[in-house]
Amino acid sequence: MASASLQFFAFILALFGVFGDIAATLLPHWKVNADVGSNIITAITQMQGLWMDCTWYSTGMFSCTLKYSILSLPVYIQAARTTMVLSCILSAFGICITTVGMKCTRLGGDIDSKNNACFAGGICFILAGIFGLVPTCWYTREIISNFLDQTIPESSKHEPGGAVYTGFISAGFLLIAGVIFCSSCFKRQQGAWIYPPKQHHFPSTEQESNAGYSLKDYV
């Protein structure tokens, strides 16, 4: 029962990780730059994401521009696009597979099949967490290096946005969920190896007949 509740807790973490991963991939809040200038009325907030760049004015106007050209983008943005999409796909596969392999569901067949499905789902969550953690770290490193560069003007410097933090948290949730699923299946398999099922040997009827005295010669 404890293992089933632990798997359910890991499944909830994985759900939060999947939703956060998708939100971080689509949101344009990877880079944020607030340029107030000399007049607060003309304040501009620039946001850059993986797929679009948005600008918000203090007057209430909001405009976004899609990034159509892939080759014109920096390498870290191209890598972030690829790895974040892979993270979303793997986490979605992990949700489907662990739904079959969890102990609290009636899908997946026997215990061994459910354990294998649960372990495969945990591997998908771990890979999804790694694929989500790598681009956020790389993207944050680029932002910090540009921010500390003295040759770049202050108006062109950015700070990490909310999508970066969402990506970090989602990757952590997916990694924790994957480790819990894999460890729960590993403990069950290890217990089966240490304590194998006892085999009961019943004497055959022929041995029972030979154990007694033969009375056919005594009439």
From TrEMBL:
<feature type="signal peptide">
    <location>
        <begin position="1"/>
        <end position="20"/>
    </location>
</feature>
<keyword id="KW-0965">Cell junction</keyword>
<dbReference type="GO" id="GO:0005886">
    <property type="term" value="C:plasma membrane"/>
</dbReference>
<dbReference type="GO" id="GO:0005923">
    <property type="term" value="C:bicellular tight junction"/>
</dbReference>
<dbReference type="Pfam" id="PF00822">
    <property type="entry name" value="PMP22_Claudin"/>
</dbReference>
<feature type="transmembrane region" description="Helical">
    <location>
        <begin position="84"/>
        <end position="105"/>
    </location>
</feature>
<dbReference type="InterPro" id="IPR017974">
    <property type="entry name" value="Claudin_CS"/>
</dbReference>
<dbReference type="InterPro" id="IPR004031">
    <property type="entry name" value="PMP22/EMP/MP20/Claudin"/>
</dbReference>
<keyword id="KW-1003">Cell membrane</keyword>
<feature type="transmembrane region" description="Helical">
    <location>
        <begin position="161"/>
        <end position="182"/>
    </location>
</feature>
<feature type="transmembrane region" description="Helical">
    <location>
        <begin position="117"/>
        <end position="141"/>
    </location>
</feature>
<protein>
    <recommendedName>
        <fullName>Claudin</fullName>
    </recommendedName>
</protein>
<dbReference type="InterPro" id="IPR006187">
    <property type="entry name" value="Claudin"/>
</dbReference>
<keyword id="KW-0812">Transmembrane</keyword>
<dbReference type="GO" id="GO:0005198">
    <property type="term" value="F:structural molecule activity"/>
</dbReference>
<keyword id="KW-1133">Transmembrane helix</keyword>
<comment type="similarity">
    <text>Belongs to the claudin family.</text>
</comment>
<keyword id="KW-0796">Tight junction</keyword>
<comment type="function">
    <text>Claudins function as major constituents of the tight junction complexes that regulate the permeability of epithelia.</text>
</comment>
<keyword id="KW-0732">Signal</keyword>
<keyword id="KW-0472">Membrane</keyword>
